Every structure is written in C-alpha cells, then in structure tokens.
Amino acid sequence: MHARKIALIGVFPSLHVVLYFMSFGLWRNWAIYLEPLEGVILGPQVGFLAALIGSVVARIIKPIDFWMFGIFAEPLGVLTAGFLIKGVWKPVLAIYIIMLSAYFIHPLGSQLPLWTILDVLLALTLIYPTAKIGRKLFEGNPKRVSASLALISFVSTVTDALVRIFLFIPIGLYAIFGLTHEAVYAIFIAGAIDSYIEDTLVVVVSLIIGAPLFIAIKKIPELKILNFSNK
Predict the structure, then answer these.
(1) pLDDT single digits (tens) 163-219
(2) Do 52 and 59 meet the contact criterion of CB atoms below 8 Å apart?
C-alpha cells in the first residue's frame, strides 16, 4: 500500500513536467490547469512538494530566461489550493497581505494601473469564503463540487500570478533583467490581459473536467488517505 501510494504521488510531478511543455502561447504553461487538482488531491504539503519537483525538473530539461518565476509560483499556487480545500485560510491571507503590501509600497506598484491586478484583489476577498466552501467539498454533495473547485481554481491560479508579480516588482527582478519603467508598464498591460484570459480558462477547465475527475479520484483509496480525510 505504501509503495502504491508513493507511485500515485509520483504521477503528479510527471504530469507537471509534461504540461510544462504545452502552452496556449500565453504567459504561463498548461501546468496551471493541474495546480488546483494537485493541491486538492495531495494536500498542501505533498502537493507543494510534487509541484516543486515537477517545476524544477521541467526547467532543468528546458531552461528559460525567467525560470525562477514558475519554480516559486507554481508550488505556492498548489499550496494555496491545498490549504483552501482543508478550510485553512489564514496562511493564504498572509501570502496575499505580504505580497500585495510590498507591491503597493514599491514605487512602481503605485504607478501601474490598478485594473491590471483586479483579479488579485478579487481573489483576496474570496479567500475566506472559498476556504469555508472548500472544506465541505469532501462531504459528498456532487452539486457543490463544480462551484467549489471553480473557486479554489481561481484563487490558486491568481496566487500563482501574484507570486510572479511579487518577484517581478517588489523583489526587483525587472531591474536584474535590465527593464526600464516603460518596458515594465508595457509588460504589465499585456500580462494582465493574458492573465485574465488564463483565469477564465482555468475556471472553465475546472468546471468541465475538474469536477468529474475529482469525483472519480475520490474512489482511489491510496489518494483518499492523503487529503480526503480533511484533517
């Protein structure tokens, strides 16, 4: 049983690597569609580790200039989903408060258009209700699965974006890349549009594929041990 459980857990880093090489041509890769389910199925700790292994291995195989964004952002997106499914909201709220505060304190953050981070602000307001609704996802009411997964998927995906914003602006990676303020402004405008499209796509995928997949996976005893006890 222990070996089978480890083998099942190992599937997720592998999927993460495969999806990394697939993209709609937007800001991030298809791994964003897996992030919510990684957290929901594996829980915050194991899910975080699986996403971290997958994101690191993927970027070792195919290095990119902005490798550090995904390595940090994707595991934290999974961690968020894992916390929310357990009804834990305080660590997620802390992530948002710290990163958003750093963003608005930074001179560039106060100059960039507010509409570019409206999804982040919306996700901030949804953290508590999503945690309360997500906690009931394991109670077995199929009618609530789609709505709960859609909320968790949205907040966890936006968390991924927030981490990238935090690294780019407050941490100062834009300066390391030698970008001017004008270039940062242009990147943010284009990135916000892409990000909003991706938010919508992730929610749609979670509604169409996520809910049936979640219900099917709940029947696997080995994975049920990991997170479905909801403790």
Answers:
(1) 999 999 999 999 888 888 899 999 889 888 888 988 998 898 888 887 777 777 766
(2) no
CA distances from 158 to 52, 76, 103, 200 (A): 18, 10, 15, 11
Any idea what the CATH number is for the domain that residue 145 is in? 1.10.1760
DSSP notation for 100-169? HHHHHHSHHHHHS-GGGGHHHHHHHHHHHHHHHHHHGGGG--HHHHHHHHHHHHHHHHHHHHHHHHHHHT
Nearest to 51 by CA among 64, 42, 61, 60: 42
Torsion, CA 137, CA 81, CA 191, CA 111, rounded to 10:
110
Distances (CA, A) of 199 to 9, 23, 219: 26, 14, 29
Count: domains in the chain = 1
Q: pLDDT tens, 4-17?
A: 667 767 888 888 88
- For residues 6 and 226, is the Cβ–Cβ distance under 8 A? no
Task: For residue 49, give its domain range.
Answer: 2-228
Q: Report which of 204, 127, 112, 90 is spatially closest to residue 165, judged by C-alpha positions.
A: 112
Q: Are 72 and 167 in contact (CB under 8 A)?
A: yes
